[in-house]
Amino acid sequence: MEMVRTASFGTSSSFVLRIGQTLFSSASLLFMCFNDDEDLYAYTAFCYLVTVMGLVTPWSVTLALMDAYSIIIQSLPMQATVISVIVAGDFVLSFLSLGGACSTASVAVFLIGAGEKQCDRYKLSATMAFLSSFLSFASTFFNFRLLPSLMSH
C-alpha cells in the first residue's frame, strides 16, 4: 500500500504537486491580466484561459490546504468517494487548462505572424498553463492508482 501512496492525496509529494499547480496557474493568470491594451478581450482563447486558470487556482489551493492538513495531523480518512471527486476534478481541469494553453499559444503564434510584437506575456501565460496542466495530469494519475486499493476495503 505504501508504494501506491507515493504521490497520492494526503502526502508531501501531493502537496508539492498542488503548490506547483497553484504557482503555475497563478502565474498564467498574472501574465494574462497585467496588460495595458485590450488584446485580452479581443480573442476568445485569452478569455478562456483566464477563466480556466481562475478555476484551477482555487481548486489547487484548496487541495494543497487539505494535503497540508493531512500531513500535519498524520492521517486523513481515505474514502473512495473523496478520491474519486479529486480524480474527476483534476482530470477535467487538466484537459480544460491544456485546451486553454494550446488555444492561447495558437493565437499568440497567429499574432506574431501578423506582425504583433507584444506577445511575450501570452506565450509565457500559455507555458505556465501547460505546466499547470501537466502537474494536474500527474496528480490525476497518482490518485487514480490509489482508487482500486480504496474500493477493496
UniProtKB/TrEMBL annotation:
Keywords: Cell membrane, Membrane, Transmembrane, Transmembrane helix. Its main location: membrane. It holds the Pfam family CASP_dom. It is a multi-pass membrane protein. InterPro entries: CASP_dom, CASPL-5. Residues 10-134 form the Casparian strip membrane protein domain. It comes from the Eukaryota. Homodimer and heterodimers. Belongs to the Casparian strip membrane proteins (CASP) family. This is CASP-like protein. It comes from Camelina sativa (False flax).
